[in-house]
Structures are given as structure tokens and as C-alpha cells.
Design brief:
Chain A: GO terms for molecular function: ATP binding. The complex is a heterodimer of chains A (264) and B (339). Chain A has 264 residues and is an alpha/beta fold. Chain A is 41% helix and 24% strand. Chain A has two domains: 1-82 and 173-254, Rossmann fold (3-Layer(aba) Sandwich), CATH 3.40.50.300; 92-172, no CATH class. Chain B has a two-stranded antiparallel sheet with strand order 1-2. In chain B, helix 2 (32-57) crosses helix 14, helix 6 (104-126) runs antiparallel to helix 12 (214-240) and helix 13 (250-263) packs across helix 14. Classes of the chains: A alpha/beta (264), B mainly alpha (339).
């Protein structure tokens, strides 16, 4: 899969007061790949996501998505351009039914404006039917169709994660950004979700970037890995290369001192 | 939420017809005092349901309704007053306004539109604020509009206000705009557009990452609420035949907010029910207050009820739900048919 770059991040930096959360990070995501962004806690993975999707504005550096500069764009603009994301700490519309959560994601491309809505024009009714149909389709893809009318806050944790997936897919993205989808899951659920991600990537052919903690899962499903540590790029390459890279091992496991004492 | 979506129109039509029959009955049989009380109930319904768009659907805590009512009230009043009376009442009125003599409906809509325009202009800076800050800013708007009304003497006659307005509002007008308000807000809530509003209320960041234009939706809800409040203001002043800068104060804002909070943030049915119950209760308690010399007792009771509801049901009586009242009322008839 040596496709062209869909997302190019170069020299991306973000400072929060005196803290350098991200410091000159550069990488590329290629069309169609399933890539992983990994690194120890606090290494700047989620910050990178927030900069790419427009939740934060970068302090320096550029982000190019499908040929256009998108750094500094608001999130809704990037969503319109084809980015979609999930959140590390689930951010669903808790009081709404499962299907309504997904339907919100479809409004951008299939919804109508104020007057057709209020005047109940045929175009509004058609759009509503279309939105419902497509939302159900997304739910079926994730095996959630039976739960469509349940209030999303009442679903088990694993299913809530899947609703976030369905909702992210509802915007019909060309780049899917998944922020620690297995956070808070047991090994069984993690493996299950890993398979789901792989299957969706294969079936829908959406370029996917995954931020992940669980090394086993990432190594298992990703085609290419990008490693960051303490806000800087550490390495990038195929999982096998990354596993053998001494700098990565050092970042994760610590360094052995000359005199033989293990350091944290 | 899905059930009333498909059955709304027939139910709304039934309810509207039954309501119209009741209005005709009331109009023919009740004395003017009782009729005016019913009209105030209707106005409260318009106000509570329209405030629910901002405070309930999209989760903006606005107290600005009285400001928009003042704007709508003045605009409608000035447009409706006949030129010869304007010459006596407002000798300094700019010529293009002095010559106007509009009929009631266009004047009401003009009042609503100017209120909506004010909301649009004010909305850009003010809607950046959240929660308590927004509440304080919209409270400030009430005082700003009041001081404009006091100081623009040439147009508003200052603190004296405009009195002796024609008594144009009747139960039919109020009823018509109740229906319009409920219809528009219901359609909005149960549409894709309304769903994005609820989504913003539930999680703004997630909504914007899904491509929802949060700022634009905020402005839309604020402007829609202001338009309906402006119309209610126009109706109100032509019911009491008077408007002054202090006609619509922050106390009224409090009363409308209470209706929304009690009924449920986002529930149209809840807002309507509580608007009716609270208005009736206040009227019933008035003679009691006078007899026992306990003025303000009803406000204390209302405040107490608000506390109890907020502690036991923080999302109000119905939350965002719309209990199927028409179906519930029709149930006995259905059963007898089956039997």
C-alpha cells in the first residue's frame, strides 16, 4: 500500500503555557492505510489528534489534508473536508437514542436547513428518511441495529464505543481518527474491537489512524506505526521494525544505566 | 421519541380543532376579565415554548426574553397607532414612522422581526459566553433595552410609555400564535436540524467534530426565540393597551425560566403544561394573597416548588421527552369503541 499521502503533518508544535506538548512532529498518512500512532503516556498522541481535527490550533507547523492546508481550521470545517474522529473519553450525546447519535453525524451531508424543516417541505421529509436509512446501515455494520432506539447512556461501555464508531462513520469520512478505542476494555473486548476496526478498514477502505496504548493490538492490526515520545517523533515503520527499534524499547521500558541499575 | 414523530400532524390537527372549539366557546360565554386571563395563559405558553428552544434544545441559559418582548412591543405599538394620534402622543417621531398605520398582523410580525434582528446583532458577541456568564449577559440586555426605551423619548415617549393603545389582541390571535409557536418548535425538535441542537447541548465538542456548525445553530435558536418573544410582546401590549420601559422586567424572565426548568429542559409538552398550571395557580392565589395580606406568597410557593423539582428531578418534570398527552386523553374513547 504505497499510496499517496492523504494527511501530511510537518513540524507540528503545540505549547500549553510552558509545557511543550508537541515539539516539531512530522509524519504522513497514506491513502488507504491503517496506521497507528503510539507512544508512552503524555507523549502527545491525543494532542496531535486535537491539532489535526482542529480542536486546538497549533503553535507552529502545518497540516495538509487531501492537498489543502487545514491547520487552524475549526473542527466542523475539517469534518466537512472528510475527517472524522472518536474520543478517548467517550463523548456521546448521552440523553439521545443510539440512532439519533448516528443521525447527527449525517446532518452535515444529508440534512436540510431551517425553512424546509419548519415548513415540512418534501425535501425535508426525504432527507430525514435518507438520514434514518443510512444511520441504520451504519448501526448494522457494527451489530447495533437492535439497540437503535435505546438511550445511548444506558448501553454497556463496549457498545458505547461502537456507537462512537458508527457516528464517526456517519460523516462519510475519508480519514478516520480513532483515539484510544480500547481504553478501559479488558483483553477480550480489546481483541474483539481490534478485529472490528480491521474489518471496517477492509470493507469501507477508509484510511484509518489509530492512537493506541495496547501494543499487542496495535502490532497485530496496523500496517505502519508512528512512535512519538515526550512530544517528539521517535520512529516510524512497519510493526516488526518498530518492535526491534532500540530507541522505542528505551522509551517504553527505560534505559539500563552503565553501572547496571535499572532506571524508571 | 420516534413514536410522536410520525403521529404528530394528525394529533396536532385534532388538538388544534378541539382548542379552536374551546376558544369559540370561551369567546362567546366568558366575561372580559376571564378572557384576558386565558390570553395571558396563552402568552405564557408562547414565551415558555420559545424560550425552550434556547434554554432547552441547545442548552443556552438565556434570560433575554423580556428584552425581545420590549422591542417587539414597541415596534408593533408604534406601527399600529394611527398617525393623528401619533401626532399628539409622539410629536418628535421621525416622519417616516409618523406616517405609518399598519394593521395588526404585519405590525406583530415586524415587531418579531426587529426583535430577531436585535438577537442576531447581540448574538454574535454574547453567544460566545456559556452558562452563568450568558445568563448575566442576557440579563444585562434587559436593562440595556429598558434604558434605550427610557431615553429614546422621541420614539418611545420615555418613562411615560405609550398608553391608550388599541385593544387589538383577542383570544383568537393569541391562540393562533400559540399554535404557530408549538408547531414550529415541535417540527424543529423532531428534525435533523433540531437533533443537532440537542447534540450541541449534550456535547458541543463532539457535535462540532461531526460537522455541526455550533455557532450558527446557537444564533439560529437565539433568533427564533427572540422572534417569537417579540410577537408575544406585541400581543401583550395590545392586550393591556399600554407599554412602558418597565412593562417587561427581569422578574418576567424569572417566571418564564421557571416554566422551562419545571417542565423539562427541551420538553415542549412540559413547557405548555407548566405555563398553564403556573398561570392558573397565580390567578387562584391572588384573592387568597389579598385576603390574608400575604403578598408574594405565590412567588414563594413557586420558588419552593422549583427547589423541590430541581433536587428530585434535575432535568425537570419531563426532561426532553414529549409524553403523548393527546393519545392519553383519547384513550377512554378508544377503549369504549373496542368494547
Amino acid at each position: 500500500m504505497g499510496g499517496t499521502a492523504i494527511l501530511t503533518v510537518s513540524d507540528l508544535s503545540k505549547r500549553f503555557g510552558g509545557v511543550r506538548a508537541l515539539d516539531g512532529v512530522s509524519f504522513e498518512i497514506r491513502e488507504g492505510e491503517l496506521a497507528g500512532l503510539i507512544g508512552p503516556n503524555g507523549s502527545g498522541k491525543t494532542t496531535a489528534f486535537n491539532l489535526i481535527t482542529g480542536v486546538f490550533k497549533p503553535t507552529a507547523g502545518t497540516i495538509t489534508f487531501r492537498g489543502t492546508r487545514v491547520d487552524g481550521n475549526p473542527p466542523d470545517r475539517n469534518a466537512a473536508l472528510g475527517m472524522s474522529r472518536t474520543f478517548q473519553n467517550i463523548r456521546l450525546f448521552r440523553d439521545l437514542p443510539v440512532i439519533d447519535n448516528v443521525m447527527v453525524g449525517l446532518h452535515m451531508r444529508h440534512g436540510t436547513g431551517f425553512w424546509p424543516t419548519v415548513l415540512r417541505l418534501p425535501v425535508a421529509r426525504r432527507s430525514e428518511a435518507e438520514i434514518r436509512r443510512r444511520a441504520l446501515e451504519k448501526l448494522e455494520m457494527l451489530g447495533l441495529a437492535a439497540r437503535a432506539e435505546q438511550i445511548v447512556g444506558s448501553l454497556p461501555y463496549g457498545d458505547q464505543r461502537k456507537v462512537e464508531f458508527a457516528r464517526a462513520l456517519a460523516t462519510e469520512p475519508s480519514l478516520l481518527l480513532l483515539d484510544e478505542p480500547t481504553a478501559g476494555m479488558n483483553p477480550q473486548e480489546t481483541a474483539d474491537l481490534g478485529r472490528t476496526i480491521q474489518r471496517l478498514h477492509r470493507e469501507l477502505k477508509i484510511t484509518t489512524l489509530l492512537v493506541e496504548h495496547d501494543m499487542k493490538m496495535v502490532m497485530g492490526i496496523c500496517e505502519r506505526l508512528i512512535v512519538v515520545n515526550q512530544g517528539r517523533m521517535l520512529a516510524s515503520g512497519a510493526p516488526a521494525e518498530i518492535k526491534a527499534d532500540p530507541s522505542v524499547i528505551e522509551a517504553y521500558l527505560g534505559r539500563r544505566r552503565k553501572d547496571g541499575h535499572a532506571a524508571a | 421519541m420516534s413514536a410522536p414523530r410520525n403521529t404528530f400532524l394528525p394529533r396536532f390537527a385534532i388538538a388544534a380543532l378541539v382548542g379552536a372549539a374551546l376558544v369559540a366557546l370561551a369567546d362567546a360565554n366568558l366575561n372580559p376579565y376571564l378572557l384576558s386571563i386565558i390570553q395571558f395563559i396563552g402568552l405564557n405558553i408562547i414565551l415558555a415554548v420559545s424560550l425552550n428552544v434556547t434554554n432547552g434544545f441547545i442548552g443556552l441559559f438565556s434570560l433575554g426574553h423580556p428584552a425581545f418582548m420590549t422591542v417587539g412591543g414597541y415596534v408593533a405599538a408604534i406601527l399600529v397607532i394611527p398617525p393623528e394620534r401619533k401626532a399628539a402622543l409622539l410629536p418628535d417621531l421621525p416622519a417616516f414612522l409618523a406616517a405609518q398605520e399598519w394593521s395588526f398582523l404585519p405590525a406583530l410580525i415586524a415587531g418579531g422581526s426587529v426583535a430577531a434582528l436585535v438577537a442576531l446583532i447581540v448574538g454574535f458577541p454574547v453567544l460566545r459566553l456559556r452558562g452563568h456568564y450568558l445568563a448575566v449577559a442576557t440579563l444585562g440586555l434587559i436593562f440595556i433595552v429598558q434604558s434605550f426605551a427610557v431615553n429614546l423619548r422621541g420614539v418611545t415617549r420615555g418613562a411615560l410609555g405609550l398608553s391608550g393603545l388599541p385593544e387589538l389582541t383577542n383570544l383568537w390571535w393569541v391562540y393562533l400564535f400559540c399554535l404557530v409557536t408549538i408547531y414550529v418548535c415541535w417540527q424543529l425538535k423532531h428534525s435533523s436540524l433540531g437533533r443537532t441542537m440537542l447534540a450541541i447541548r449534550e456535547n458541543e465538542l463532539a457535535a462540532s467534530c461531526l460537522g455541526v456548525k455550533v455557532a450558527r445553530m446557537r444564533i439560529l435558536s437565539f433568533v427564533l426565540g427572540a422572534f417569537l418573544a417579540g410577537i408575544a410582546g406585541g400581543l401583550w401590549v395590545h392586550l393591556v393597551t399600554l407599554i412602558s420601559p418597565s412593562s417587561f422586567s427581569f422578574i418576567l424572565a424569572f417566571e418564564i425560566v421557571v416554566m422551562v426548568v419545571l417542565g423539562g429542559t427541551g420538553s415542549i409538552t412540559g413547557a405548555v403544561l407548566v405555563a398553564v398550571v403556573l398561570s392558573v395557580l397565580t390567578q387562584l392565589l391572588r384573592p387568597v394573597e389579598e385576603a390574608a395580606n400575604l403578598f408574594g406568597a405565590s412567588q414563594m410557593i413557586v420558588a419552593f416548588v422549583v427547589l423541590v423539582v430541581l433536587i428530585t428531578r434535575p432535568k425537570g418534570l419531563f426532561g426532553t421527552a414529549e409524553p403523548d398527552l393527546v393519545g392519553w386523553l383519547l384513550r377512554p374513547f378508544r377503549k369504549s369503541k373496542a368494547a
